[in-house]
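re the bet — no i am not wrong, look at it urself. input seq straight from the record:
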Amino acid sequence: GGALVPAGQGEVGVATRLLEGHRAAGPRGTGPRGGDVGPMGDRLLRERGYEGATVELVAAEADISVTTFFRYFESKEDAFLASFRSMLERFERAVRERPPGVPFLTALRGIVSEVVREAGDVMGERGHLKAFESVPQLQERMLDYDQRAGRLITEGFAEELGVTAGDLRSKVLAGAVEGAFHAARTAWVEGPRDVSLHDHMMR
């Protein structure tokens, strides 16, 4: 605990306003029928496993053709990770559009609080994350998403410090934030605590 704790409701309010305008702007796969495919893929992944949850099965369960599936998603990995990508894109926009004059760590705490709260609504139980993290193909894609977020966090600290993103200070600060985030997430996934992801990570 202790890491990434919102310092005050004002920060969360700022983050809420930043994110509110982006909730409807999801990734490829959020069209009139495609919006059902991501959650369907999540369920089938847990029930059938990665190999068993084929594109054909996901499309059939969502009552769409395989051709339509590929209009929304480039691969089944994209379908499985649609909710993760959507949250990453909202995080990126919120960080870039944060109000001027607010310390970066303060803004980041509020934004993370909102994104994690939404992540809990989307992902639900620990088993969801465990299912994803047990599949090397999905784990690799999630690592790419983590690296994208990490680069943005590094850039935010660098901007505030008036240095380049390659400066050691900005990298150290970003690494500390990312490390705290991942340690808290892992503890929640592996732990027996009867608490939401948001409440666990924001303590």
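see?? The mean pLDDT is 77. told u. also The CA atoms of residues 158 and 166 lie 8 Å apart. so pay up
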